[in-house]
Write a structure and sequence with these properties.
By secondary structure, the protein is of the alpha+beta class. The chain is built from eight helices and eight strands; from the N terminus they run αβαααααβαββββββα.
Length: 255
Amino acid sequence: MKPFYRDCFPPFLQPGERLIIASDYCHNAALPFVPAGLRTPRPPSPLEQRVRGALGNALGKVTKPLGPAINNRLANNPVTRAVSGSGNSAPRPAGGEGETVATYAARDFGGNGGRRPDRDLTEAVFEIQETIEDAASDAIEHMMYGKSMEGGWSSMAGHFLVDLTNAGDEPRFQALTDRRLIVLVNRNKSWLDGTPKCDLGVAVPRTNIARVTAHSKAVTKGRFDVTFVDGSWIALGSLHRENMEGIVAAFHQGV
């Protein structure tokens, strides 16, 4: 057990708890995506705030004059005047009672009662991008590595993944103690200083775990599967096969 791994865990151990083995954590990208309804909302990062602000300003400049511009163009267009009547008469209603052709054409078609389309489109862009990326990644990783979890979101495996996801940031280290299986996340966002700033990601009692088994595929040589007492299981892993084998052996030796 490398000191680099071991030294991260003492702040997160319970009184009298003994660290057995610690290693790196390699996230299995084939794990299912936790539904939005089960995820804890996280504050946007500084980068996201800057992007949202820039896009919001740009969209505001475009959308604010959109309604008046369309109204003026339609109102002064010969075709619009021909349809609505003749001369300088007002355009005829086109939608609801009292609604003109111009306002009908310019309004937001989202059932918002004539509101300008000035909602936060940047959030929708981020959501669509994340959904597409996650779906593509899941499909590729599933073909390469096979199934990575068994059990619904209310199962022990489901709770494990939900808790780890809601911890936020990158899972970096994992350890087996005489009491628990622990995964730590790295809060360090600095590009200049790579020193990990560890925080608790998820921890489960060993009494909740039925068995820990090495995965057989050579392409996933650092993968091991944790099976819980309710029959659900989840794939975890390390970049190094010897680390994975150490965790599996330590669990079944009962230490």
